[in-house]
Amino acid sequence: MAPSSAPRTDTGIVERVRALRPFIGEQALRTEQERSVPDEVVAALTDAGVYRMNVPRRYGGYQTRPRVQVDTLAEIAAACGSTAFAALIQAGCAFIAALFPDEAQDEIFTGPDVRVGGTLVPDAVAVATDGGYVVNGTSGFATGCRHADWHLLTARVENADGPPEVLWTAVPMAELEILDDWFVSGLAGSGSDSVVARDVFVPAHRVLPVGPMLAGEFPSKTNADDPFYRTPVLLMFCAWTAPAALGLARAALEGFTERIHRRGITYTFHQRQSEAAVTHLQAAEAAMKLACAESLTGDFLARIEAGGPFGVAERARIRAQSGYVARLCKEAVDIVASASGASSLRREVPIQRAVRDVQALNLHSFVNPATNLELYGRVLSGLDAGTPFL
Questions:
Q1: In terms of residue numbers, what domain contains 245?
Q2: Which pTM does this prediction carry?
Q3: Residue range 96-102: mean pLDDT, rounded
Q4: Region of residue 303 (phi > 0: left; psi between -120 and 50: alpha; otherwise: beta)
């Protein structure tokens, strides 16, 4: 990992990333075609300090407040949804790495610009051995793995007397095989290939039990009392996923209101789309949906930044809000896309990519609006949420 020229603090990080938007946008079609974020874009984000946002300060990181992280990631998403998704996953996994035992952190954070990827579905299997575990298995959706230095591989430890124990294991990417299998229609450039572990030994200090972590218990002694790392991980994931939807919707609406002055509506008397009443309704409705999404995001960010305690109802509400943000942004993008004409189907026109990217985001298991509303509704109805992932 080569050193970067990133500033030593996160002051101005939103502005730095906003200045990169034209460059990232110019690479968006290439990103999709290559199915991975280009090296040059990763380097530019590194120099802007994006990968430092959740790295502990003692390693040169920023520990950037959630509101600023959202604004930063939304700027990336406005230029390229795939690039933003890869960045938010690596930002989130750096946060999780900071919960591992301090000895593991010393190995992982050899520099502030380290890139950490991860998966949560426990498709791999870990078997206890002297001093740690031996891990085998394939894990899909390893977003950004081609540019990661480390991977937090989720593995299950089978238990004959009950459900398996689930562990996050920190593994250097050099010890994993990458399968070139990311052929999808949405977030196609996020490089979410599968990774394979073949008899990988993971020492005990590079293991983080998922169950206790979800309950707020983690082995890092240095970060144990730091309010930044006491924030529930899954609430932070709500914060990290929202800007992907917001950025896509903002860019779609911005692009739409620019194009309507340059094109008419075929087979009508409108020489300029901007003159048609139906366009006014479409633009306004999309803008209102986006405004509602921004308001919801602001609400749950304020509660996250205010700190806990976070009860089950509060956690379920925030997760439902983040899913609803994704739905509102998808609806806004769909409105704009339906009014953009057949010429917008060309691959160089960003709106068609935004449609596919925001749909893919809404299909993510943790983001899915219907699932999130159901679990919040269960809590409102006096039932158990039905999941520990809150």
A1: 231-380
A2: 0.96
A3: 98
A4: alpha
